[in-house]
C-alpha cells in the first residue's frame, strides 16, 4: 500500500481545514489536505450570508463589541455553549476579518450617506458615517443585537474559500483531492494518521502524520432533507467514533434552517429575512409577529423553524405534492436589491424552481441545516481520547454553538477556529517526534483491505445499500426532526439497531471496480447509521428542551439537570453508544437566563453562579 | 401525460481493463421539477449503481457537475429536464482527464493554473492585527467580487477552440483569474509582471476570440470583456512609447 508521510494531515479542505493548514504551513511545517472534491468545491463555498464579527463599522452596528457578540452567542446557544470558547471566538473574530481582507477577500465596504433598509417589510432610513467609509460593512442576521455580519455580496463563503485556497497554494499546502479517509490509525493513545481510499482509482493509501485534523464539515446527509452538500455525510466523525475512544459531543443538537426551498431543500440565505423578507402562510398572511412580536422573522433559527412548523400543523401551510410549505416574500425589496444584493437567491429561484422572486413568492420549509455536535475538542481544538488528533469547524464540537448556533457564527467559526487550532497544532508539532509501532499501521491496513475485499468479492451480504440508507432516512425524519418525543425516539433507537445490522450486511449490485460510487457508500454506511444512532439515542436521553432540541414531553429548559454536554463513545461490538456528560461550560461569564425570544419555561439551577460577568449585560 | 425520458450516457471505467468506451441507454419516467441531478441519482440508485458522475452542492455554486448536455457544456444540477427534449445525451467534459463515465478531473488542472498565474495577492505589506483594515471603495470591492464569482466548473475550457489545439492554454478561467488580481488594489504586481505571466500564446494572445467561453459560462461572467481588457492592457504594457 502506498504510504505518505506528513507533519499535519488535514482531513477536509474547506474553510476550517484550509485555515488551519495555512497557519501550520506558515509556521514551516509540511501539510497535506485530503478532500473528497477539489478544495474549492467544499461546502464552505455554499455559505451565502456572511461572518459575524463585532467590528462596529456599520451605522446599525454602532456600539457593538465582542461583549455584545458574546452575549448574543451565549443566548443563541441557549446556554449550551462553552463560554470560554465563545469568548475566545468573539474576541478573535474582528482580527480574523481584517486578516482575510489583507489576503484578498472583497468584503463589502461602508458607503457614507443615507440608505434605505427594510425591516418587517417596511422601509427605514439609516446614515452611514463619513469617517467609517471604506471600512468593512456588516448586515443584519437573526438573533443579534447589532448588524454584525461581514459579507461579500451574497457569496461570502465562496469568496473566502477562494481566497483561502489561494493562500494555501501560495504557501505550498498540498491538496490531495478525491481522497476519502476511511479510518484513523491509532494505538489507543496516539493518532498516527489515516487509511484512505483514492476516489480516482479505488486504491487504498496510507497517510502517516504527527498530527491529524478532522475538518470534514457537517453530517447533514444522514437526513433525507438537508441543505448540506452531497459530501456532508460525516466521514471524519465516522473515522473518529470508530476508534472507540474518541467521543462525539452533543450529537442530538441539530439545527433546522427555516428557509430551504421546496422540493430540493436548497438553502436561501437568512439574509433575505435580514434584509426585510417576510414569511407568509396559505392566506398570504404574515404570521411571525403573532408568535414573536419583538423579533418576528429575525428571531433565532430554532425559534423561527419551530414557529413555522407549529403554524403548518395548524393547517396554515400551502399544500404541495412534496408536502406542506410556507412562502418567503422578498418582492417588496425591489428588483435592484434582489438582482444585486441577493443575486444567488435570485439565481436559485430562477434555475431550480423556475420562479422570479421579484414578482413571485418562494416556497420554503424548515430543513436540516447544521450540526452543532461533532468531534469533541478542548478549546485548543485537541480531540478527547487521542493525542495528536484535532478537530475544527462544523465537524467539531469546540463548542461555541451549544444547542443552537446563530447565522453567520459558523462561517466565522471556520476561520477563527481554524486559525486558533492551527496555531495550537504548530505548537504541538514543534519538537514532536512520532514513534510508530509498524504493527499498528499494518493491522489497520489489513482491516480496511479486508472490509473492501469482502464487499468487492461479495462474500456474503444481501442488502441493497440504497434501501438501507432510505430506512435510516425514514427514522431520522420521523423521530429526530424539529419536534421529538420519548415514545418515537425509543422506537427509533430499536429501528436503528436493526438498520445497523443491515448496513453491515450489504451486497454490491455493481462490480465495485475502481472509483465505484456504490462501494464508497457501502464502506461508509455502517458509520452513518452509528451517527444517526448517536443523534437519536442522545435525543432520547436528554429529557429537556434546549435550543434546537425540542422535546414535546419535556418542554422546559432544565438548567438544574441538563446544563451539560453529551459525550457519545462507541465501544466495540455495542449497538448503542455509551453516553457520558460533562458541564456545558467550565465557568460562567453570563449566568443562565432568559433568551428574550422563543418563550418556554426554565427550570433554574439549584445554585446559580454569580460570575464576574453577572452584571455585564 | 408525463414523458418517458431516454438518456444516452457515455460509459468508460479506465480502472477496469475489461471496460471499453461506449454509450448506455437508460429510460426514466419524468417527474415534476426534475433536474439532471434528480434523474442521474435515480438512474444510479435504481438501474446501475456503478454509474460515475459528480455532484456536490447540487445548487449551482460549487462547479462539480459540469458535463456536455445534448452537445453543450453546462451544469447538470440546475438543468431542468422540462427544458430538454425526451432524448438526452450526456458526455463528460472534453479536455480534462477522465475519471470515469461522466466524471472528469478538473481539480488537477485548476491547481496547476493557480501556480501559473500566481493566483494570490502579491504584497510587501505585513498584516498587523492591531491596525484597522485598509480602506477600500465599495464599488472596487464589488468589481473584484464580480470576477471572483468563477466556480471553476471547466465549461469555458471545454468549449474553447484554442484549448482544443493547445493543452497549455490558460483559457478564460485562468485569464479571468488574473484579471481579478489586476483590478485589485491590494495586489502590487506591475503590468510588466502580469505580462510575464500571460503575454504569450499560452496566455492572452492564444485567444482566437471565438467567445464560446462566455456563451457557456453558467455564472454569466463577463469573459468577453475581460479577454478584451487583458489583451489591450497587455499589448499596451509592452509598447515602448507607453513606458
Task: Summarize the structure in words.
- The complex is a heterodimer of chains A (617) and B (243).
- With 617 residues, chain A is of the alpha/beta class.
- Chain A is 33% helix and 19% strand.
- In chain A, the strands form seven sheets. In chain A, strands 1, 2, 7, 8, 9, 10 and 17 form a seven-stranded mixed beta sheet that branches.
- In chain A, α1 packs parallel to α11 (409-429).
- The longest helix of chain A has 25 residues, at 517-541.
- Mean pLDDT of chain A is 94; it is low at 613-617.
- The model of chain B has no long low-confidence stretch (mean pLDDT 94).
- Chain B contains nine helices and seven strands.
- With 243 residues, chain B is α+β, with helices and mostly antiparallel strands.
- Chain B has two domains: 4-105, Ubiquitin-like (UB roll) (Roll); 107-242, Fumarate Reductase Iron-sulfur Protein, Chain B, domain 2 (Orthogonal Bundle), CATH 1.10.1060.10.
- Chain B has helices at 36-46, 106-117, 138-148, 155-158, 161-165, 171-182, 191-198, 212-216, 223-237, and strands at 4-11, 22-29, 66-69, 72-75, 87-91, 97-100, 103-105.
- In chain B, α2 (106-117) runs parallel beside α6, α3 packs antiparallel against α6 (171-182) and α6 (171-182) packs across α9.
Topology:
The complex is a heterodimer of chains A (617) and B (243).
Chain A: E1 2-11, H1 15-26, E2 31-35, E3 51-52, H2 66-76, H3 83-103, E4 113-119, E5 122-128, E6 149-150, H4 156-170, E7 174-177, E8 179-186, E9 191-198, E10 204-214, H5 235-241, E11 248-249, E12 254-261, H6 271-274, E13 278-280, H7 288-291, H8 301-316, E14 326-329, H9 335-340, H10 343-353, E15 362-371, E16 374-376, E17 389-391, E18 396-397, H11 409-429, H12 438-456, H13 465-479, E19 483-484, H14 486-503, H15 517-541, E20 550-551, E21 557-558, E22 564-569, E23 578-583, E24 602-603
Parallel strand pairs in A: 1-2, 1-10, 2-7, 10-17, 16-18, 19-20, 21-24
Antiparallel strand pairs in A: 3-6, 4-5, 8-9, 9-10, 11-16, 11-22, 12-15, 13-14, 14-15, 22-23
Helix pairs in contact in A: 1-4, 1-11, 2-3, 3-11, 5-15, 13-14, 13-15, 14-15
Chain B: E1 4-11, E2 22-29, H1 36-46, E3 66-69, E4 72-75, E5 87-91, E6 97-100, E7 103-105, H2 106-117, H3 138-148, H4 155-158, H5 161-165, H6 171-182, H7 191-198, H8 212-216, H9 223-237
Parallel strand pairs in B: 1-5
Antiparallel strand pairs in B: 1-2, 3-4, 3-5, 6-7
Amino acid at each position: 500500500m502506498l504510504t505518505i508521510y506528513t507533519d499535519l494531515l488535514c482531513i477536509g479542505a474547506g474553510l476550517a481545514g484550509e485555515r488551519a493548514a495555512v497557519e501550520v504551513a506558515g509556521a514551516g511545517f509540511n501539510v497535506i489536505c485530503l478532500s473528497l472534491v477539489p478544495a474549492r468545491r467544499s461546502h464552505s463555498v455554499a455559505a451565502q450570508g456572511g461572518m459575524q464579527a463585532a467590528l462596529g463599522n456599520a451605522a446599525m452596528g454602532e456600539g457593538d463589541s465582542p461583549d455584545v457578540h458574546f452575549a448574543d452567542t451565549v443566548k443563541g446557544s441557549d446556554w449550551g455553549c462553552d463560554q470560554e470558547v465563545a469568548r475566545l471566538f468573539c474576541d478573535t473574530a474582528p482580527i480574523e476579518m481584517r486578516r482575510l481582507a489583507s489576503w484578498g477577500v472583497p468584503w463589502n465596504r461602508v458607503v457614507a450617506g443615507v440608505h434605505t433598509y427594510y425591516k418587517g417589510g417596511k422601509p427605514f432610513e439609516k446614515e452611514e458615517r463619513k469617517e467609517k467609509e471604506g471600512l468593512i460593512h456588516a448586515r443584519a442576521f437573526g438573533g443579534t443585537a447589532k448588524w454584525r455580519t461581514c459579507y461579500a455580496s451574497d457569496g461570502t463563503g465562496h469568496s473566502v474559500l477562494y481566497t483561502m485556497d489561494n493562500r494555501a497554494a501560495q504557501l505550498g499546502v498540498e491538496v490531495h483531492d478525491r481522497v476519502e479517509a476511511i479510518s484513523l490509525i491509532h494505538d489507543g493513545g496516539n493518532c498516527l494518521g489515516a487509511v484512505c481510499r483514492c476516489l480516482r482509482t479505488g486504491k487504498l493509501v496510507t497517510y502517516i502524520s504527527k498530527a491529524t485534523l478532522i475538518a470534514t464539515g457537517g453530517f447533514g446527509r444522514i437526513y433525507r432533507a438537508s441543505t448540506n452538500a452531497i459530501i456532508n455525510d460525516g466521514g471524519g466523525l465516522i473515522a473518529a467514533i470508530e476508534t472507540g475512544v474518541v467521543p462525539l459531543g452533543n450529537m442530538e443538537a441539530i439545527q433546522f434552517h427555516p428557509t430551504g426551498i421546496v422540493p430540493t431543500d436548497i438553502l436561501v440565505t437568512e439574509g433575505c429575512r435580514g434584509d426585510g423578507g417576510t414569511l407568509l402562510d396559505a392566506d398570504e398572511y404574515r404570521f411571525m409577529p403573532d408568535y414573536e412580536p419583538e423579533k418576528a422573522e429575525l428571531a433565532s433559527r430554532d425559534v423561527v423553524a419551530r414557529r413555522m412548523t407549529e403554524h403548518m400543523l395548524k393547517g396554515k401551510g400551502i399544500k404541495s405534492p412534496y408536502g406542506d410549505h410556507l412562502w418567503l416574500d422578498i418582492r417588496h425589496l425591489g428588483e435592484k436589491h434582489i438582482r444585486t444584493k441577493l443575486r444567488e437567491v435570485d439565481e436559485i429561484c430562477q434555475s431550480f424552481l423556475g420562479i422570479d422572486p421579484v414578482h413571485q413568492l418562494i416556497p420554503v420549509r424548515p430543513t436540516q441545516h447544521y450540526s452543532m455536535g461533532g468531534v469533541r475538542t478542548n478549546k485548543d481544538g485537541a480531540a478527547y481520547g487521542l493525542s495528536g488528533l484535532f478537530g475544527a469547524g462544523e465537524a467539531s464540537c469546540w463548542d461555541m454553538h451549544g444547542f443552537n448556533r446563530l447565522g453567520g457564527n459558523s462561517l466565522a467559526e471556520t476561520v477563527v477556529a481554524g486559525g486558533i487550532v492551527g496555531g495550537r497544532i504548530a505548537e504541538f508539532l514543534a519538537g514532536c517526534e512520532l514513534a510508530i509501532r509498524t504493527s499498528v499501521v499494518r493491522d489497520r491496513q489489513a482491516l480496511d483491505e479486508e472490509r473492501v475485499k469482502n464487499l468487492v468479492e461479495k462474500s456474503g451480504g444481501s442488502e441493497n445499500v440504497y434501501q438501507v440508507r432510505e430506512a435510516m432516512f425514514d427514522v431520522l425524519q420521523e423521530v429526530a426532526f424539529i419536534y421529538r418525543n420519548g415514545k418515537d425516539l425509543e422506537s427509533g433507537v430499536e429501528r436503528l439497531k436493526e438498520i445497523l445490522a443491515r448496513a453491515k450486511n450489504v451486497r454490491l449490485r455493481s462490480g465495485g471496480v475502481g472509483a465505484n460510487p456504490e462501494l464508497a457508500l457501502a464502506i461508509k454506511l455502517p458509520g452513518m447509521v452509528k451517527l444517526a444512532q448517536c443523534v437519536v439515542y442522545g435525543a432520547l436521553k436528554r429529557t429537556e428542551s434546549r435550543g434546537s432540541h425540542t422535546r414535546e414531553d419535556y418542554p422546559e429548559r432544565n438548567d438544574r439537570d441538563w446544563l451539560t454536554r453529551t459525550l457519545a463513545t462507541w465501544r466495540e461490538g455495542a449497538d448503542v453508544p455509551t453516553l457520558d456528560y460533562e458541564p456545558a461550560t467550565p465557568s460562567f461569564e453570563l449566568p443562565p437566563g432568559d433568551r428574550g425570544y422563543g418563550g418556554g419555561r426554565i427550570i433554574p439551577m439549584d445554585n446559580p453562579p454569580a460570575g464576574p460577568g453577572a452584571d455585564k449585560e | 401525460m408525463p414523458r418517458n425520458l431516454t438518456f444516452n450516457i457515455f460509459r468508460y471505467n479506465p480502472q477496469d481493463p475489461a471496460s471499453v468506451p461506449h454509450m448506455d441507454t437508460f429510460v426514466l419516467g419524468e417527474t415534476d421539477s426534475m433536474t439532471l441531478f434528480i434523474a442521474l441519482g435515480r438512474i444510479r440508485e435504481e438501474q446501475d449503481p456503478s454509474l460515475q458522475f459528480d455532484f456536490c452542492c447540487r445548487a449551482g455554486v460549487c462547479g462539480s457537475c459540469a458535463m456536455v448536455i445534448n452537445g453543450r457544456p453546462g451544469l447538470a444540477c440546475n438543468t431542468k429536464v422540462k427544458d430538454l427534449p425526451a432524448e438526452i445525451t450526456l458526455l463528460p467534459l472534453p479536455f480534462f482527464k477522465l475519471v470515469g463515465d461522466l466524471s472528469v478531473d478538473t481539480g488537477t488542472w485548476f491547481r496547476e493554473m493557480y501556480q501559473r498565474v500566481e493566483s494570490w495577492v502579491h504584497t510587501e505589506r505585513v498584516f498587523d492585527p492591531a491596525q484597522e483594515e485598509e480602506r477600500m471603495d465599495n464599488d472596487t470591492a464589488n468589481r473584484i467580487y464580480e470576477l471572483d464569482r468563477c466556480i471553476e466548473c471547466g465549461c469555458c475550457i471545454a468549449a474553447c477552440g484554442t484549448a482544443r489545439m493547445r493543452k497549455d492554454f490558460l483559457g478564460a478561467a485562468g485569464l479571468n483569474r488574473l484579471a481579478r488580481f489586476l483590478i485589485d488594489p491590494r495586489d502590487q504586481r506591475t503590468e510588466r509582471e502580469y505580462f510575464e505571466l500571460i503575454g504569450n500564446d499560452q496566455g492572452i494572445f492564444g485567444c482566437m476570440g471565438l467567445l464560446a467561453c462566455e456563451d457557456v459560462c453558467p455564472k454569466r461572467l463577463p469573459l468577453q470583456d475581460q479577454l478584451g481588457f487583458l489583451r489591450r492592457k497587455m499589448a499596451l504594457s509592452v509598447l515602448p512609447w507607453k513606458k
